[in-house]
Specification:
With 298 residues, the chain is an alpha+beta fold. The chain folds into 2 domains: 101 residues, Orthogonal Bundle (434 Repressor (Amino-terminal Domain)), CATH 1.10.260; 172 residues, Beta-Lactamase (2-Layer Sandwich). 43% of the residues lie in helices and 11% in strands. The protein contains 13 helices and 5 strands. The protein has a 5-stranded antiparallel sheet. Helix 2 packs across helix 3 and helix 11 crosses helix 12. It starts with 21 loop residues before the first helix and ends with a helix. This is Helix-turn-helix domain-containing protein.
């Protein structure tokens, strides 16, 4: 294996020179290697004593598959930066959590890092679920990175449908917008919203689709010409607010303002919908809530 020994091995793409803080990066690396148990890393020798706790520099370099000289200069703040690949390898070697991993990239002046998906990262925190439930007059959904519907509140059920009745693998807002007549039929201005959602997923994939979303993209491309066109156009969207026009068999047409708020780690989004001021939409939402309650009691 070839080890990097000079900055020429590093790509400067994605670097933000003004954000690079070599002194803080050096302290961060040193602090985290000192906390690691060599035995847990499989590096201890029975009967061997160490003068200082944690891993040695050469051991971190070994675990990250880089040269000891390169790592030493990085820890001493004598390098202008490191590539995303090296930083990911160091984060793995140092067993950093996701927040620590993100901070490592910040210290190295790296921008545009694609967040990793972790096991369990699609679970909604109890605090976010409580916030969702407290939005009594505002339909709201928690969406995953690829618009998987992770959680919802009662008003969202009243406006769209009972998401709990949707098979888990089909519980994706993009999929339902195109393939679920009940969700698709709720929007009188369906096309603009659907195109926004296609753009959201295009941005999220960043050219690195995971198996689940790749399968969904393939399915939608086969069965829906609008999706096929918008996806082929490389359409992207960063819209996070607007007004949408909806309809319901029990109430007729109405409008809702919407906005998307991202969690700090960027992996989940809260999409909340509210009645525009001086509209009849709040009354519509309350009527839909009563209809939904009556249907559930039937």
């Amino acid at each position: 294996m070839a080890f990097p020994s000079s900055p020429s091995w590093e790509s400067m793409e994605g670097m933000s020179p003004h954000a690079h803080r070599p002194g803080e990066l050096a302290a961060f690396l040193k602090a985290h290697r000192s906390r690691l148990d060599p035995a847990e890393a499989g590096l201890s020798t029975p009967g061997q004593t160490r003068r200082v706790p944690g891993l040695r520099r050469e051991e971190v370099a070994q675990l990250a598959s880089i040269s000891t000289d390169y790592y030493t200069r990085l820890e001493q703040g004598r390098l202008s930066g490191a590539s995303s690949a090296v930083l990911e390898a160091l984060a793995d070697a140092l067993r950093l959590g996701e927040d620590e991993r993100e901070y490592l990239f910040q210290l190295a002046g790296r921008t545009g890092r694609r967040p990793r998906r972790r096991a369990g990262s699609e679970r909604v925190s109890p605090q976010l679920q409580q916030l969702l439930d407290n939005l009594r007059d505002s339909p709201a959904l928690v969406l995953g990175r690829y618009l998987d519907v992770l959680a919802w509140n009662s008003p969202a059920t009243a406006v769209f449908r009972d998401f709990a009745q949707v098979p888990h693998r089909e519980r994706n807002f993009l999929r339902m917008l195109f393939l679920d007549p009940r969700v698709r039929g709720r929007y009188t201005d369906w096309a603009p919203l659907a195109r926004i959602c296609v753009g959201f997923v295009r941005v999220a994939t960043d050219g690195h689709s995971e198996p689940g979303i790749s399968s969904l993209i393939g399915e939608l491309s086969l069965v829906d010409s609008d999706f096929r066109t918008w996806w082929a156009e490389q359409h992207t969207s960063y819209e996070t607010a607007g007004t949408k026009h909806l309809t319901h068999p029990a109430t007729g047409d109405y409008s809702l303002d919407w906005q998307v708020l991202r969690t700090l780690d960027g992996q989940q989004m809260l999409m909340a919908m509210t009645a525009p001021p001086e509209s009849n939409s709040l009354g519509v939402l309350r009527r839909l809530a009563r209809v939904s309650l009556a249907d559930s009691d039937a």
